[in-house]
Amino acid sequence: MIHLKNIEKVYRTSTVETLAINGISLDIAKGEFLSIMGPSGCGKSTLLNIIGLLDEPSKGSIRIGDQDITGFKDQRLAKFRNEKLGFIFQSYHLINDLQVLDNVELPLLYRNVSDKERRQLAAEALEKVGLSNRMKHFPTQLSGGQRQRVAIARAIVGRPEIILADEPTGNLDSAMGNEIMDILINLNKNDGTTIVMVTHDEHMAGKTHRLVRLFDGSQVQ
Amino acid sequence: MFKHLFKLIWNKKSQNFLLLIEILVSFMVVFLLSSSVVYYMINYQKPMGMDYKPVWMIQYNNELPTKNTDSIVMFYDAVKQHIASFPEVAEVSFSGNNIPFSSSFSSTDISNKGVKYERISNFRVEDDFIKVWSMNLKEGRWFNAGDRIYKDRPIVINESLKKKMFGDAPATGQLISNKEEESKWRVIGVVEDVKDESDFSPVMDGMYLRIDTGTFKWLSTITLKVNSNADAAFESRLSKYLSNTFKNSSIEIAHLEDMRKEKNRSKAMPVVIFMIVAGFLIINVALGIFGVLWYNINKRKSEIGLRRAIGATGNTVSIQLVSESLLLATLSLILGVFFAVQFPLLHVFDMPSNVYFIAIGIAIIFIYLLVFICSLYPGKQAAGIHPAIALHEE
Ligand SMILES: Nc1ncnc2c1ncn2[C@@H]1O[C@H](COP(=O)(O)OP(=O)(O)OP(=O)(O)O)[C@@H](O)[C@H]1O
Ligand SMILES: [Mg+2]
Question: Any stretches that span the bilayer, and where are they (chain B) (predicted)?
């Protein structure tokens, strides 16, 4: 499903050059639930952003499905992200000025989906994460775990083939973390969604199919 | 998308409140400014209805020693003859002090079939007045020597007054009267409107009454039309003659062209000052809008990053931000237009209502343009925000 070949990422500022990813090749199968671990600053988020087409590698090539993404321009990238990928972040990234339902609808706004269908799909996604009774709330009126569930609903509302999650349980206590983890596992199992998750938690990583460890920009296992 | 943006703005209404008010105030200022400018332009485009360029005005103090009517008449006849005999002079006419571009004004309220017409500009004129000013007769005739004897005193009115009183029907032959309905006047003619206050002023309703020699002793103004050879030398000869004739009187000769310029200047001055003040205000508002949008975009970096991540292109993001400001402007404009239409409805100023509507249109276009331009650059900037970096910030 996802094929990375010799990916390198160099961050250049006027004074320093950081090699965030140093020659990583990785194949992720369709329907796989992969976790990535490693010490802080080793390049996990960078790698995930590259897979998510949010960041361009300095070197190497990416294929997702049967498409070579390298060299895609802004518009095609955006369309691809919108249709194929779902994102979950450690800090949720909900829009606080929009109600839960409107937050969940967001990805469909950039597609040709009618108003009514959008509502319906968003409501369904919220039901999946068990938040049907919070549709009219604002994010600030929710707990951390609830917020992350809204974010998951937003990630799955467009029925993506791949979900990329960067420390989705990082801000949550273990009970709430487990809840989130269960939702992701179910998504993977029932819908066959490919999931790539960055985590600091060995316990969470243990629940996934495969674990990749990074150190200083390189894969160590 | 529209609904989405509206929700976004609506939910942030308290944050957007200041900007809303700022846009509203600018709209009102631009509206008021363009009302006066539009009004001036409309008036400016109207014909003058006369030719003031070759006209000079003479003013004198009327202090003749004699009380004998016959000798007074003879005296003024002689003065008129003499002035007319200068080769540089084409026409001469005594008149009341109310002449175009002068600082004096006299008005009368009149009535016709029970309807009152107020503040009609009242001109006291001689038979040659129409020739001095090259005015245009639209209907009937101007005064002549035969009007010395009458049953109902003859009166000439201008087109504006005629339209109000008689519509499209002819006015000639109609009887009108003063407000108290004591003296009756017979309309003998209608002249084209004369723009007599300034180039930017509206035409007032006007009436012309013939002065006969009996009232000459009350007058202190002579108007003359000069030929193209009238120069400074002629002016000093004329001046010398007049001071010799009107002893102990201060004589003033003014060119209508200069009087007109002076009037135009004093009429335009307040608008120019208003324009400068409004200009500063608008620059301020523009910077304010720009600053707020700039600040918003930086504050909303993570939102922008998220939108990019879930499928918005750079262009979509910048279109969204520009549309948001335009939508915000629309809310202010709805409120603004509501206030602005009160002006014609309540007749706040003495201007025709189409002036206000044109001004509302101008102000709407202006505000949209202003907001559009101010949000274009921040919007473009936002499009350039790299999603990975934007998501990094929180
Ligand atoms: N935009 C950037 N500009 C410069 N350097 C960057 C940038 N983003 C990341 N880096 C550097 O790249 C390296 C990898 O960063 P990354 O965010 O991928 O780490 P991480 O493994 O996700 O860490 P954490 O577990 O703390 O989230 C770090 O050294 C970081 O300083
Ligand atoms: Mg990270």
Answer: 20-42, 271-297, 326-349, 355-377
